[in-house]
Amino acid sequence: MIASPDRTPLPREFFDRPVLEVAPDLLGRLLVRDTPDGPIVLRLTEVEAYDGENDPGSHAYRGRTARNEVMFGAPGHVYVYFTYGMWFCMNLVCGAEGRASAVLLRAGEIVEGAELARTRRLSARNDKELAKGPARLATALDVDRSLNGTDACATGDTPLRILHGTPVDSSQVRNGPRTGVSGEGSVHPWRYWVADDPTVSPYRAHVPRRRRS
């Protein structure tokens, strides 16, 4: 008999570690999104680490701005950004306060509330595609900038929280280059995923955007 996932919230100390330790350890954890229509629970299957001012691929590489302010705050908070003028993406801040490292949540399996996620992801061909990619994940969970700065370690009435879940055995964790990252940051093998999991998004190298003529 398979044991049920542990529903204990992850403590702040979990996130108060180097980003390259936190990122693979997030695989198998449960992300709970409480919406007005009910909860959606996602099991994390793919993440990417971003190491702040030491990482050319990070939003915080050139220092603190109004956009990335949350990344410099306490670990365990949610950093949401808007990209390509149409999509939101969700990160979890980690490391010491002022350090600005974070983990991008790239993909997961909806284990509860799939019927709610489907109403937001009408183009998904099946439930495995509901949160297959960071923008799809945020869309399925109804995440936008209003949730930026949310404390995912808080107890009580909170729209987002992280539970212990069932950590993935290290033998099933894979890593490789981050998706869509250009320049010096493209060489870091800081994308982590669960081996052979059908909800993991495909790797895509960075392709420069062409300006419209």
Entry keywords:
213 residues, mainly beta, 12% helix
Q: What is the secondary structure topology, with strand pairs?
A:
Layout lengths: L5 E4 L2 H4 L3 H7 L4 E6 L2 E13 L27 E6 L3 E8 L6 E12 L1 H7 L13 H7 L19 E6 L7 E4 L14 E4 L19
Antiparallel strand pairs: 1-7, 2-3, 2-7, 3-6, 3-9, 4-5, 5-6, 8-9
EC number: 3.2.2.-
InterPro entries: Formyl_transferase-like_C_sf, MPG, MPG_sf
Enzyme class: hydrolase
Provide an overview of this structure:
Its EC number is 3.2.2.-. This is Putative 3-methyladenine DNA glycosylase. Belongs to the DNA glycosylase MPG family. It comes from Streptomyces labedae. With 213 residues, the protein is mainly β. The protein is 12% helix and 30% strand. Strands 1, 2, 3, 4, 5, 6, 7, 8 and 9 form a nine-stranded antiparallel sheet that branches. Strand 4 and strand 5 (87-94) form a beta hairpin. The model has no long low-confidence stretch (mean pLDDT 92).
